Amino acid sequence: MASRYALRPEFYGGTARIHDVWEIAENLGKEVFNADYCHVSPLSGHVALMMSLYVTAGKNSTIACVDPSGDGYPGLMPDKIPDLFNYKVVNLPYRDHQILIDEAVQFIESLKPRVVVLGSSLILYPFPVKEVSEVVHGYGGYVVYDGSHVLGLIAGGRFQKPLAEGADILLGSTHKSFFGPQGGIILTNSPELHKALSESTFHKFVDNIHFNRVAALAVALDEMRRNGRLYAERVIENAVELASCLDRLSLKPFKSSSGYTESHQVYLPFNVSEGVRVRDLLEKNRIIVDMPVRLGTAEVTRRGMGLKQMSQISKLIKSALNGEDVSAEARLLASRFRTVRYT
């Protein structure tokens, strides 16, 4: 399937089984996310966002989002997607890694951006989709929810339900907390947006949607349909426990009045230079984080780790940051959890 094309309407011969898989993936996507329409054509979450903005904002519009130089998605920096479509980008009122609801509503009412994008790379808490959607729809705008990082939790019904809360489009990457192949997905309940997305797919944003990826996505969607709720519950439980254990060891993960996290992410708020040092030091000890420093519990959870292991991981992190070599202990812990679960 990696070396075959298929189109709608079809141009090629010998593609009947590809169309079967294509339809299965879309139907599973609609079921898992309780959506009327599903598009599996985007090759990434980034392309899914571009397609979604193109059919909602068009070109030469104003869009609002979480500051992409902060927690927001870097693809919405002025010289990235906005440069291609000539968007003016305004940043939503935001503090302590959460949108300030009342201020955001007033801000949106004042500026009336064509599209409000709810999404971020550091996403500890749900977004105020209902409140934002009510004001945006009042003047004829659109709400696009970029669920790339939390898509697996949304699929499991444990984070929030963006479409039910008022978002016009839910999109995301299919390889983060959602345990599928690298790629993207778009979901909507709007027949008009569905039609526009369909018309904007082939030879505009993609010309081959990589049907080996679509087949793998169908498998992941079916796994999520069967096991997503339990998976998402355990992921969030592990994240809260990991943060709590790190806090008891004086590593001070971020915590607001809403708690440490309601997602799979835990945030250790180091500055940039210190974050790079932490990332590289932990990597030498076989513990993988990134520069910000974000820790995610999706992968260890799917390997079967639970609350006890979150305590062990926190102690390994603390010891590594104290200068100890814990690489052998980290490897031993990982070796005990080789079986993929929730499948």
Task: Characterise this structure.
The structure is a single chain. By secondary structure, the chain is an alpha/beta fold. The chain folds into 2 domains: 16-222, 3-Layer(aba) Sandwich (Aspartate Aminotransferase, domain 2); 227-335, Aspartate Aminotransferase, domain 1 (Alpha-Beta Complex), CATH 3.90.1150. Helices cover 45% and strands 12% of the residues. It contains 13 helices and 11 strands. It has helices spanning 16-33, 45-56, 81-85, 101-111, 129-138, 151-155, 162-165, 191-199, 211-248, 272-284, 298-302, 307-321, 327-335, and strands at residues 37-39, 62-65, 88-91, 94-95, 98-99, 115-118, 142-146, 169-173, 184-188, 265-267, 294-296. It has a 7-stranded mixed sheet, sandwiched between helices. Strand 6 (115-118), helix 5 and strand 7 form a beta-alpha-beta unit. Helix 9 packs across helix 12. The model has no long low-confidence stretch (mean pLDDT 97).
Summarize the structure.
By secondary structure, the protein is an alpha/beta fold. The protein contains 13 helices and eleven strands.
